[in-house]
Amino acid sequence: MKSTPDRTRLKNLHQLSRMKSDLALAALTAARLECEKTTDQLAGLNCPPGIRFEGDDAAAMEQQRLLYRSWAERRRIALNGLLARQKAEAAERLTEAREAFGKADVIGKLCPGSVRKPRPDPG
């Protein structure tokens, strides 16, 4: 049976829609990895609680600890702002990925004789 132009165009459209869904999934994965990276940086700022310094350098060591805590708190504030923006970006990428997967699925159902592999929800 010969392929009609409409059938060929539909198959091409299906291939393009699957490529677009793959790109959307890659963008979602990248956004989530950025969130994980920032979360790890936040976790790395935690320091052990209340070490007591003794001896001649105790005052200097305590001052250094207080300076670090002050710096870490400012860094934590900056990273929390960054993480909020990254999570918003990841949420947008999730919406785009779901739309792309949905479109590819619908086009695949319209495409006669296409082999459809079930694809998981990107969420």
UniProtKB/TrEMBL annotation:
<protein>
    <submittedName>
        <fullName>Uncharacterized protein</fullName>
    </submittedName>
</protein>
